[in-house]
Amino acid sequence: MKNKFNIDFRIFENYYSADYFKKTREILNKYKPKQLVTMQWFQRSDNTVVCGIEVIKEILRLSNIDNLEVEAVEDGEIVNALEPVLKITGLYNDFAHFEGLFDGILSRASTIATNARKISKAANNKIVINMNDRMDYFTNQQIDGYASYVGGIRNLVTEASFEFLEEESNLNGTMPHALIASFDGDLIKATQAYKEVFPNNNLVALIDYNNDCLNDALKVCNAFRGEIYGVRLDTSQGLVDKSLQNMKEKSNELHGVNITLVKLLRKELDKSGHNNVKIIVSSGFNEDKIRDFEINNAPVDIYGVGDAITKNKIGFTGDIVLIDGKKQSKFGRENTFSSKIKSIKYK
């Protein structure tokens, strides 16, 4: 059977299920084997982009459970606090072990998708590259790539990030500082080597290696006139670029990759005839920093984003709200109607 999301089949052996769910399942299997329950999943934040429903459908499809009634929103649906996104009705023994598992799937994927949407919106639909591979455990890349795509950031940097997507990988990458270091800090030689080995790639030069972005940008653009697609600034927040060190600052606004530096870079590139060279920025960018750049008309063409993709965790909770069709739930956890939820088939 095809396994689109590469589900680990140990899920069905309770390997990933919390112990108390397994014990509850055994208890109810003894005392309430025919009890029909409705479980409902929700979260507590407004404007959440739901993601992970397709993964849950895949788990249910691969299971040996045939008699569940499943209702859910679609991946990419935007919901508010307390809106149900998934309801499952059936024998509790059949899906009790999935409660915490589904919480986690929805939480991780919806966090990524929601952050991706917010960041994309802040960037005014400019290109955003998801560079979170270096910020998280590597086995998250598949689900994070899928969720990032659902949220609107579709420029990914690893093959694993495309594994759950129904399209060919279109990897986005520039050059790391390690490449420049390997050529003794010579940006021109590193760029030439990149060009020779990957002649069909966009030629993007990393220009902050010497903390001299303006001079290095002009140097590499002049050396490869008409061939440079873009230059990337990745200056650490603890540094002030050499071009700005004679300026006075009030509150670290000249540190790292900043608006003043980007505007000055654009001015110098245009003055030297490199009007078509794109400016790519990375290092510490999140929704707020991107919005600030956009409000101040910073001439950025492409944003690179790392751990901002996984911040502001969204937690989901599954609760029993009906037993044998009658209200039965923890106080404050009512069976809630939502017009966004539709009946779905998982088999």
From TrEMBL:
<keyword id="KW-0597">Phosphoprotein</keyword>
<dbReference type="GO" id="GO:0004514">
    <property type="term" value="F:nicotinate-nucleotide diphosphorylase (carboxylating) activity"/>
</dbReference>
<dbReference type="InterPro" id="IPR053190">
    <property type="entry name" value="NAPRTase-like"/>
</dbReference>
<dbReference type="InterPro" id="IPR022412">
    <property type="entry name" value="Quinolinate_PRibosylTrfase_N"/>
</dbReference>
<dbReference type="InterPro" id="IPR037128">
    <property type="entry name" value="Quinolinate_PRibosylTase_N_sf"/>
</dbReference>
<comment type="pathway">
    <text>Cofactor biosynthesis; NAD(+) biosynthesis; nicotinate D-ribonucleotide from nicotinate: step 1/1.</text>
</comment>
<protein>
    <recommendedName>
        <fullName>nicotinate phosphoribosyltransferase</fullName>
        <ecNumber>6.3.4.21</ecNumber>
    </recommendedName>
</protein>
<keyword id="KW-0808">Transferase</keyword>
<keyword id="KW-0328">Glycosyltransferase</keyword>
<dbReference type="GO" id="GO:0004516">
    <property type="term" value="F:nicotinate phosphoribosyltransferase activity"/>
</dbReference>
<keyword id="KW-0662">Pyridine nucleotide biosynthesis</keyword>
<keyword id="KW-0436">Ligase</keyword>
<dbReference type="GO" id="GO:0009435">
    <property type="term" value="P:NAD+ biosynthetic process"/>
</dbReference>
<dbReference type="InterPro" id="IPR013785">
    <property type="entry name" value="Aldolase_TIM"/>
</dbReference>
<dbReference type="Pfam" id="PF02749">
    <property type="entry name" value="QRPTase_N"/>
</dbReference>
<feature type="domain" description="Quinolinate phosphoribosyl transferase N-terminal">
    <location>
        <begin position="32"/>
        <end position="110"/>
    </location>
</feature>
<dbReference type="InterPro" id="IPR007229">
    <property type="entry name" value="Nic_PRibTrfase-Fam"/>
</dbReference>
<dbReference type="InterPro" id="IPR036068">
    <property type="entry name" value="Nicotinate_pribotase-like_C"/>
</dbReference>
